[in-house]
Amino acid sequence: MRTRSALLTIATLSAALVACGTEGGGTVESGSSTAAQAGSSAPAGTTKASLPVPGPDGRYEQTWKRATADTTCDQFRQQMTPEERWVMAAEVLTDERGDGAEAPAQQEISRFETDLNVACQDTSTAESVMTEVGSTLYLLDQTYKP
Hints:
5 helices; Lipoprotein
């Protein structure tokens, strides 16, 4: 059943990304911080004043208390603040790139967050967890690779 759900999610995400003209993907544990560094664009729905600020170690603080692997698309879209969604997108994208890879710029993180939102709009992905959705987007869109 889990495999069938994952395949349905991949098919849905592929269709959504083709419709948007992108190819998208990512994974990470939420509740942690991410190594994404400052870039040039703010998270969707935020102002420059509310832009997440990296700590002394260069990582963004995540205030969403549920792990990415336990956060569904519905929660991502309906319960998280714009800042929490953006930081989760940063975590997922950074994790997918792997250790030693260059940290994504804020503009890339914002684009990844937008793609996550698009993928999560489909009702068939409502219960999909963000690690699966993000990983699929990362695998489908080669432009996210460092």
